[in-house]
Write a structure and sequence with these properties.
The chain has one helix and two strands, in the order E-E-H. By secondary structure, it is α+β, with helices and mostly antiparallel strands.
Length: 50
């Protein structure tokens, strides 16, 4: 089965740094994953400072 999806560039911010992600997933999904990664990194930082 051929995959007809075109690759897209999506810019996201993770822990204050901008990244461009290239892939066939919808930009909304890429942003959701990036937001989860950002949140986890901030949680880890909080734990380190305690």
């Amino acid at each position: 089965m051929a995959d007809d999806k075109q690759k897209q560039r999506t810019t996201v911010s993770i822990y204050g740094q901008a990244y461009t992600v290239v892939g066939k997933e919808p930009p909304s999904h890429i942003k959701e994953v990036a937001q989860s990664v950002d949140q986890k990194m901030r949680e880890i930082k909080k734990e380190i400072l305690i």
